[in-house]
Amino acid sequence: MTLSFKISLGQNFGDFPKIEKQKLLNDLEILYQGLDKFHSGMYWYTPKDSVDIAFKNVKSKISEDMNVLQFHKLIAPLVALSREDHTDIYLPKKIIEKRNLESTFIPLTFVFLGTKLYCVKNGSNYQELIIEGKEIESINGEKPIDIVEKIGNLFASDGYIKPVKYSDLEGFNFSKYYFYYYGNITDVTIKFQEFENPIIIKPLKIENINKNLRSRNTNKKGDKNKELLEFKILNKTTAYLGLHSFSNSDIKKETKEKSLSKFLENSFKSILVNKITNLIIDVSENGGGTEGNEGIVYSYLGDNYQKYKKVRAKTQKAVLDNGIDKPITLKTFGFLERTFVNKKMTDGSLERKQWIGYGLMAYKKEPKNKFSGKTYVIISPITYSGGSEFSNMVYSNDKGTFVGQETGGGYLGNTSGYSKELILPNSKIEIDIPALQFVMNVEQKLPFGSGVVPDHKVIQTFDQYINNVNAPLEYILEKIKNEK
User: Fold this and answer.
1) What share of the chain is helix, strand, coil (3-state, %, to 5)?
2) Would strands 430-433 and 204-205 be described as parallel, antiparallel, or unpaired?
3) Secondary structure of residue 192 in the 3-state scheme
4) CB atoms within 10 A of CB 480
5) Residue ranges of domains in the chain
6) Residue 7 pLDDT
7) Which residue in 231, 237, 255, 382 has a CA-CA distance of 20 to 30 Å to 35?
8) Residue 347, number of CB atoms within 10 A of its CB
9) Which of the listed CATH numbers 3.40.50.1100, 3.90.226.10, 3.40.50.1820, 3.10.180.10 matches domain 229-419+435-483?
10) Distance from first CA to last CA of the chain, Å, rounded?
11) CA 147, 151, 157, 159: dihedral to nearest 10 degrees?
12) Where's the Tail specific protease domain (predicted)?
């Protein structure tokens, strides 16, 4: 413990104001109570005794005054023990503003394709370096997978799903979390696979990085104005359904149909009229949205059934009190939902009733023009929340063949809805704590803590990534062609 303690305090995070040791300990107690009393899925994947030990270890490391970034490095892994991607931690706005002005970062953007790390854009002062699209073997002597093992503990992800840890570090996120773990560093030594000798570059402030990136028109990943909901007849037998969000507000604002139900009604009518036998449903960029939309899509593929074993809130009200600061109260439901939609259990938790409100069933209404052909589902680590719930239903009920990468959302469900913002009183660090645990009624076909695992794993090459090529779609079309 002594060694790791010295390491955690040894980073140079810059000239940020110190917070008194006792105030940090007071914040730690509030954090513990918030996760313990209010987070309905806190102990789904991490046993309570393990969480308690982790908090005790962190408490022992707070032996002197620290700045907020030092404290953040200690407590972010505690939040990540929730193993729930809806549980987020944020630095105070003033600290972010100061960080953006004064701190230095690796001046590159990155992408992991699988577990291979590539440089996407060069924002360093060395414009002559031809490093974009090059695979990286090490940074400051560490392999990328070893770095992810460290910085990946600073943010939560569902269960034990590993691909999402790599996916979440796309763009500038790798540099940002590298800073959160290692602090300001003097030099960055990068070993590229293609080059015999390492390259040494200087970390830069964000302003300088952005200036360099704006002045260079290199590797500009073309973001086409993709429709939020896409339907295409690809050939005589195959149709593509791109469902990139389940958010009703976004769908209303950005689509001509204004509703997912209307879009699906039109799409599946066209599928029937055109005698389509192969349907490709793409939820690889679907991070969820409005509850129930995943079920509406599933209604075109399968029979209705109870999709949730239960939807549970640990408590209606949690009072967080460290005995020093003003107590904080977190509440779950309003009066009507608490009274009519949920029932109180003997342990004080609340569980959703079967038929009222959203209920527990897969969907509310049987649609016309259900599809009975071959279904393929494209998934990725970005497939999350409602997007992953749809995948879970299809996978559990054997209604499709999955292509891509493991989903970022857990197969057993998630803890999301009714998240409350907990602002720690002294450090002002904010934690979003979700209140509802959605336990899905799935067949136990996958390891505990995994997402939906594809039947056919497909990872983009760098050229495909930079040119926005849908590699899983190409794989499916070739597969269909070869099966004729």
Assistant:
1) 35, 25, 45
2) unpaired
3) strand
4) 18
5) 18-100, 107-149+161-204, 229-419+435-483
6) 38
7) 382
8) 7
9) 3.90.226.10
10) 62
11) 60
12) 238-457
Average pLDDT of the chain, as a whole number: 94
CATH of the domain spanning 107-149+161-204, picked from 2.60.40, 3.40.50, 2.30.42, 3.30.450: 2.30.42
Task: Give the closest residue to 78 by CA, choosing from 56, 63, 109.
Answer: 56
Nearest to 19 by CA among 323, 320, 325: 325
CA distance 281 to 452: 15
Q: What is the pLDDT of residue 2?
A: 31
CA distances to 60, 242, 345, 421, 456 from 264, in Å: 55, 11, 38, 35, 26
Residue among 125, 20, 127, 26 at smallest CA distance from 75: 26
Q: How far apart are CA 298 and CA 277, in angstroms?
A: 17
Q: Going by C-beta distance under 8 Å and a sequence separation of 6 or more, which residues neighbour residue 191?
A: 136, 137, 138, 139, 198, 199
Which helix (H) or strand (E) segment holds residue 278: the answer is strand 278-282
Percent of the chain with pLDDT over 70: 96
- Record the tokens describing residue 363, joined without a space: 């969907």
Q: pLDDT tens digits for 43-54?
A: 999 999 999 999
Give yes or no for residue 233 having a pLDDT over 50: yes
| Residue 9: pLDDT band with limits 50, 70, 90 | low
DSSP H helices, 277-385, are 293-298, 335-336
Residue whose structure tokens are 């958010």: 247
